[in-house]
Amino acid sequence: MKMKKSQWVGLAILLALLAFSLGGMAFSPYSISQQDLNAIMESPSATHWLGTDHFGRSMFTRMAHAVGLSFGLSLLCMFTSSLVGTAFGVWSVWGGKKVDVAMGIVVNILLALPGLVVVLLFAAIAPGSFLVLYLAISLVQWVEYFRVVRAVTQGVIQSPARQSSQMMGFGRWYQFKRHIWPAISPSVFTLAAFGGANAILTMASLGFVYVGIQPPLAELGLMTVELFPYYSEAPWLLAQPLVVIALMVFAFHLLAGKRA
Predict the structure, then answer these.
(1) 125, 214 contact by CB (below 8 A)
(2) What pTM did the predictor assign?
């Protein structure tokens, strides 16, 4: 599969942000909670490359950790939800009518609940827990993979090529690799890219209402809320998490473009 130029641009943006995050976490002389009350809301300088916040904490250090946290969550959710959704989607078709009906009931129940509400409920149970956020977002996202994979697999299962492989004695793993995976992989990759963007937005949304990651950890949505009261005094501080959220979502959407 060839990638389009827009996808390379999206990948380059994500890699640049990842390099910024890793470099900041590895080489910054400051910690995310280290305060300097004599250097409150400073503009970018040689000492603090991105300035300092309202507690005198290094914005470079905090942004690096926040970007890394968002990347970690998005990648974990992408991997888990795609794996679970793909596995259940194929199993639903191959497992027979009873399995298909049972999976359909489960999926319809999940679809009846707004995704963000489900995540908010989980986050309210254990505020600040990265594990709970990861599980809640993955629980919401795997359904989309299931629906797409199930629909595509139904057509592949009935294809003469797949049936020929079955009659020749090839096992299901071979049939999956040879016939099903090539048919579903473009859709899975596209959904994964959109899923990464949605995970970042969901995490930021929870930060906006203070039920996501809790201080002193740095998270883009939480940083936005904390810095909003100072937008007139230090607009460059508020712009930083907002620009990074927009860049990450934009890059994932570019990466989701159809492959040539």
Answers:
(1) no
(2) 0.88
